[in-house]
Design brief:
about 325 residues; alpha/beta; Rossmann fold; Dehydroquinate synthase-like, alpha domain; 2 domains; 3-stranded antiparallel beta sheet; 11 strands; about 45% helix
């Protein structure tokens, strides 16, 4: 469940039986609005992605136990997607699991990362390899946080948002940002409610990610912009009839496809590492025939390489 709120409403919804995890950068940028946290029990993290570790997980857990957290306590997590990954995992494990609330502070986390209950931490073997499914009981969306977000990070959120415009044909890129955030959040909540453990329907939320994850690994692009490039490849190769809509959406959201120079063989190798996308030797893709109408298809790597070599515009992505 999510709701748009302001800082005063946030403060009014918090009580003495609540504990907090917050991104230090968010605390610094919005200190005048978050001064009510001064007398709360708060664990502050620096560099959220690096903090998704066993070391910081243990440190946070021990801190809350020392502060007297109880089974009926609630953990409030304030930050972007990496912060909610860590905080949600702490909530899912401490005292065998307590309730938690998330206050996402980036566009990407508001529409995607903070919703759905996927929480976890990283290890040297890879990202999110230790984790669980643990839904927050509430998401509070405060658009004031977006005013301090770096442009490239905001664009990353828009890049992820585009997948929802394919999933639901009723969504339009011309909607106001607050409406888009609320509608995307509701769409993901509804999908997750029907398929919490990702056994079927929830797979549609990975649209563009098969290509996007490989791009993210091979470049310095953010997650959302990597997904955007992944959607571009997906549309170009599998859904050319939807290219006009895709280009119109980019124009409306003031986004451009980043020009890359990726080695195709290495690109295919990276995709083969993502085992959830491999079945019977084929790489799996979510493909839209029309907006709102998708299928999950498999394609062998040799044929995929041919398609990567020949689609119109491939020279903007591959070396």
């Amino acid at each position: 469940m999510h709701s748009l709120t302001n800082f005063i409403q946030l403060e009014e919804n918090f009580n003495d039986n609540q504990f907090f995890i917050i991104d230090s950068n968010v605390l610094r940028l919005h200190s005048e609005h978050l001064d009510f946290l001064i007398d709360k029990k708060v664990f502050v993290i620096d560099d959220p992605e690096a903090s998704k570790s066993l070391k910081i997980f243990e440190k946070a857990t021990l801190y809350f136990l020392e502060q007297g957290i109880k089974r009926n306590s609630t953990l409030i997590v304030i930050g972007g997607g990496a912060t909610s990954d860590l905080g949600g995992f702490v909530a899912s494990t401490i005292l065998r699991g307590i309730s938690w609330i998330v206050v996402p502070t980036t566009l990407l986390s508001m529409i995607d990362a903070s919703i759905g209950g996927k929480v976890g931490i990283n290890t040297k073997q890879g990202k999110n390899l230790i984790g669980s499914f643990h839904n927050p009981i509430q998401n509070y969306f405060n658009l004031e946080f977006l005013k301090t977000q770096e442009k490239v990070d905001y664009q990353s959120g828009l890049g992820e948002m585009i997948k929802y415009l394919f999933i639901d044909s009723k969504l339009e890129p011309s909607d106001s940002i607050d409406n888009l955030i609320s509608k995307c959040a509701s769409l993901k909540e509804n999908i997750v409610a029907k398929d919490f453990k990702e056994k079927g329907l929830r797979e549609v939320l990975n649209y563009g990610h098969t290509f996007g994850h490989a791009i993210e690994k091979m470049t310095s692009l953010s997650h959302g912009l990597s997904v955007l490039a992944g959607i571009y490849l997906n549309v170009s190769i599998f859904s050319p009839d939807l290219m006009a809509f895709f280009q119109d959406t980019l124009k409306e959201l003031k986004l451009t496809i980043p020009k890359l120079s990726i080695d195709k063989d290495q690109f295919l190798t990276y995709m083969s590492f993502d085992k959830k996308n491999i079945k019977n030797g084929e790489i799996r893709f979510i493909v839209f025939k029309n907006r709102g109408d998708y299928q999950n298809i498999g394609i062998d790597s040799k044929l995929l390489k041919e398609k990567l070599l020949t689609f119109d515009g491939h020279e903007n992505i591959f070396s």
